Amino acid sequence: MIIAVVVIVLIVLYAIATYNGLVKSKNKCLAAWAQIDVQLKRRADMIPNIVETVKGYAKHEKETLEGAIRARNSYVTASTPEEQLKNAGELERSLSRLMMLQESYPDLKANTNFMSLQNDLKETEDKISYARQFYNDDVKQYVNKLEMFPSNIIASMFHFEKMNFFEVDEASKEVPKVQF
């Protein structure tokens, strides 16, 4: 009888520890996503300033400038992480096209405001890259817990759901082409 009680207590303690570990992993993933979101929003907030700076030099580049603003607005208004992931790729592509404009405008390259914004953007892109890496590492650990025995039993009992990795879509991998 005592052995049965001890076994039951150990099983309950294991279940509690596993459940808490899953919750901790899930929350770590959510916190990592929040860090990506902060940096993506910072980048999105920079775009209007970059567009305004470029406008002064590239008045006839209306389509590229408007595309950057549209992509920024789509990202900012996204309501789910999945939408944000999709729109972040478009934002990245439009920002690349926007930054390519500097090659055609030598005066723009020397503009102090533009150079400062470009430097801030580079720092933000680096932070986004690191945040993506940490997020994907956290998601990998969480998904491993969801799939590995015996924690997968507790995960399925309490309906823990998989989280998506932050992946770059194929279009974002292509080098942007700017034609004049």
TrEMBL record:
It is found in: Membrane. Gene3D superfamilies: LemA-like domain (1.20.1440.20). Coiled coil: none annotated. Its main location: membrane. Pfam families: LemA (PF04011). Belongs to the LemA family. This is LemA family protein.
